[in-house]
Structures are given as C-alpha cells and as structure tokens.
C-alpha cells in the first residue's frame, strides 16, 4: 500500500522517479535539510486547535492506559531481581535509521522514522546490541551484560491489549560460543525472580525462528505471554565474527501490569 501511494504521489507531481531521487540521488545531509524545510512549512500552518485535535485522535501520542504507579512497581521489582552482573543503561529515544529492519528484519514500515537519519526506538534490544558490539570490539575477554527499561514505539495496526507505544524491561548478554547455557540461566533466573510466586510457565520452545538464530524461551503468566528471549546473530554480523553470541530478552511491563 505504501509503495502504491508513493507511486501515485510521483505521478501527481509529474516526477515519476521522485522516490528514487529522494532515496538514492540526494546525499543524506541534503535530504535532512530538505525534509526540515518541508516540516517547517507544514508546522507553521498548524493552529493550536489542530494540534489539540491531533493529540486527541493520534494513537501514537496518547498516554499509556496503564497507571504509572503500576509500571513503577514492576520496574522496581525488575531492578531488584536483576543480577549485579548486569549494567543498566538509559537509552536515547532514537537510534540509527534502519536499526530494526537491518538487525531484526522488521519491516521499515513498522518503524517511526525521523527527518534526521534516525528512527524512534522500536526494540531496545537492537540498541543494546550496538552497545554490546562496541564493548566486545574493545575487549573480547569479558561477557557483556546490559539491561534497559525503555518505552518503545511501533507503527502498524494494533488491537487490544497491544498499544503503539509500550514499556519494556530488556536484557542483552554478549559473549563467545560455548557460553550459551550460562547466558540462558542468567536470563531465566531473572524472569523467575520477577514473576515470583505468581503462577507462571517458562519454556525453551523455539519461537520466531525467522527472528532468532538459536535457542529461545518464553514466559507466560496466567496464560498471557509477558516475556520472551533468544539468541540472535546481531553481534556476529556487527563484528564480522561468527563465534560471537548474543542473547536478548524482554519483559512486557504493561502486559504484566494488566495481570495485577
């Protein structure tokens, strides 16, 4: 559909190769300047009433339906359950353009891109993978363990209980081949601690094999999937080293909050 609309716009403007020009012939800095000029003109025409209407009706900008106190409580429990071996990071709201599509194979149409060569973070583990790669490149001797709580934003249609933006508590462990079981045990221990005495199930069944490249696991509470994880080949690709291993996982904070 997006390609069809782009083709129609190109025809309407009388520039048949409009998309090709914008995508391939204009250097990135010039394209940024062009898009900024377009945005300036469009924003200058907006009235306060139009902005309020957009805020009321745009699902991307509306607040989370979950009470902040519930999210805070789960974040606090997650931090308490986290092994001291993990270093927590506060991530930027944006990451390099193409992060989700190049690393995770996610359609770029499901990502909210900016006009400055970046995109809004749609999966914090993508960003943690970059940080893991930088640290592993500097020192291959130590396993890197990182964690981050972050509100992600994804485009595309959503149905209850899913929302366009949502809070995740994510883990990434990066090391060498042969460390896989130790990595899995650390992640599974975290999720066992976080769900506590609540009836839950943790499995190691293969999930989303088009996304993961190795062992996977899932966590469900009262029949609702609240977390999942698995090995991906992202650091192996980023560092050009097939022996690199990366385990990612994430807890849907708002999913868990709905059960409480």
Number of distinct beta strands: 9
Structural class label? alpha+beta
* Total domain count: 2
Point out poorly predicted stretches.
none
Note the run of SSEs as H and E. HHHHHEEHEHEEHEEEHEH
Q: Please report the number of helical segments.
A: 10
Distance between the termini: 39 Å
Question: Beta-sheet strand percentage?
Answer: 15-25%
- Helical residues, percent: 40-55%
Assigned CATH class of the largest domain: Alpha Beta
Q: Overall pLDDT, averaged?
A: 91
Going by CATH, the homologous superfamily of the largest domain would be Bira Bifunctional Protein, Domain 2
- Report the radius of gyration as a whole number of Å: 21 Å
- Biggest β-sheet strands, sense, barrel: 7 strands, mixed
Name of the CATH architecture of the largest domain: 2-Layer Sandwich
CATH topology of the largest domain: BirA Bifunctional Protein, domain 2
* Coarse morphology: globular
Sequence of strands across the biggest β-sheet: 1-4-5-9-8-7-6
Q: What is the structure about, briefly put?
A:
The protein has 260 residues and is α+β, with helices and mostly antiparallel strands. 42% of the residues lie in helices and 22% in strands. Strand 7 and strand 8 form a beta hairpin.
Set out the fold topology.
Layout: H1 2-13, H2 18-25, H3 28-44, H4 48-57, H5 68-81, E1 87-88, E2 94-96, H6 99-104, E3 118-120, H7 124-138, E4 144-153, E5 165-176, H8 180-195, E6 200-203, E7 216-221, E8 224-232, H9 234-239, E9 244-252, H10 253-258
Parallel strand pairs: 1-4
Antiparallel strand pairs: 2-3, 4-5, 5-9, 6-7, 7-8, 8-9
Helix pairs in contact: 5-8
């Amino acid at each position: 559909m997006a390609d069809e609309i782009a083709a129609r716009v190109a025809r309407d403007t009388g520039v048949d190769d409009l998309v090709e020009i914008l995508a391939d012939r204009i250097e990135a800095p010039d394209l940024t300047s062009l898009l900024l000029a377009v945005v300036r003109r469009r924003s200058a025409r907006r009235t306060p009433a139009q902005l309020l209407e957009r805020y009321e009706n745009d699902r991307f900008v509306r607040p989370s339906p979950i009470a902040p106190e519930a999210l805070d409580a789960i974040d606090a429990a997650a931090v308490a359950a986290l092994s001291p071996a993990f270093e927590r990071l506060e991530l930027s709201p944006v990451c390099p353009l193409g992060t989700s599509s190049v690393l995770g194979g996610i359609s770029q149409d499901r990502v909210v891109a900016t006009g400055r060569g970046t995109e809004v973070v749609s999966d914090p583990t993508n960003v943690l993978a970059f940080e893991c790669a930088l640290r592993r490149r500097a020192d291959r001797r130590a396993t890197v363990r990182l964690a981050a709580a972050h509100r992600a934003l994804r485009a595309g249609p959503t149905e209850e209980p899913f929302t366009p933006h949502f809070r995740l508590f994510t883990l990434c462990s990066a090391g060498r081949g042969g460390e896989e079981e130790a990595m899995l045990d650390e992640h599974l221990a975290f999720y066992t601690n976080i769900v506590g005495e609540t009836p839950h199930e943790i499995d190691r069944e293969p999930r989303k094999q088009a996304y993961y490249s190795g062992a996977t696991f899932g966590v469900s509470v009262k029949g609702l999937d609240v977390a999942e994880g698995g090995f991906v080949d992202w650091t192996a690709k980023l560092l050009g080293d097939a022996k690199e291993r990366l385990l990612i996982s994430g807890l849907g904070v708002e999913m868990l909050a709905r059960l409480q």
